[in-house]
Hints:
By secondary structure, this protein is of the alpha/beta class. Helix content is about 30%, strand content about 15%. It contains five helices and eight strands. It has helices at about 15-20, 30-55, 70-80, 110-115, 115-125, and strands spanning about 55-60, 85-90, 135, 140, 145, 160, 165-170, 185-190. A hairpin with a 4-residue loop joins strand 4 and strand 5 (about 145). It starts with 16 loop residues before the first helix and ends with a strand. About 25% of the residues are buried. The model is unreliable at about 100-110 (pLDDT under 50).
Amino acid sequence: MLAHFGGAPFRQFEQKQKQLERCQDVGYKDFMAANAEVDAFFITSVKKLIARGGTPILLAIAGPTAAGKTEIVERLQEDFERGGQKVTTIELDNFLTTATNARRRASSPRARRALHFELFKQSLADITQGKRISIPRYDFVFATSSHDNAGNLKPGGKPIEIEPADIIFIEGNFPFLIQEVVHLIASKWFT
């Protein structure tokens, strides 16, 4: 990956903020056009990773709330599916336990209690081995999880079933800061 980036761990793109500052209102189409170069680069990079290492491949997309993680994953998913790749997404927020704060630091011992941590680790290990997984479903309206704090499905709880895929996106505020799963992630991106 470092060779692809010319020895640097990241790539910088032409600064286009000045063009956007002149606009009073940036619409969705303008936003998509501004990100087209970044999206194309990301897709090319993932295709190179797949060519070298094969699939399944786990890609982490991190960023703050409302940064556009889900939107970019949906656009990338469309492109990969057009190319015949099977794609799935895992949202880190679904691993929150009942009545927890999603913004706790991943390195904090409390963060392990804020997440269904063991279930999270096992789910990522299983899906990267081509296995179907069943993960918790977090309800943001009621701040509750489909699973109890021990990671067991609650009576009446409905988990999210995720089929194996070639490309697996995990998105959230801090998915690649969790040391116990970082070895499973082929590429890390921040929005």
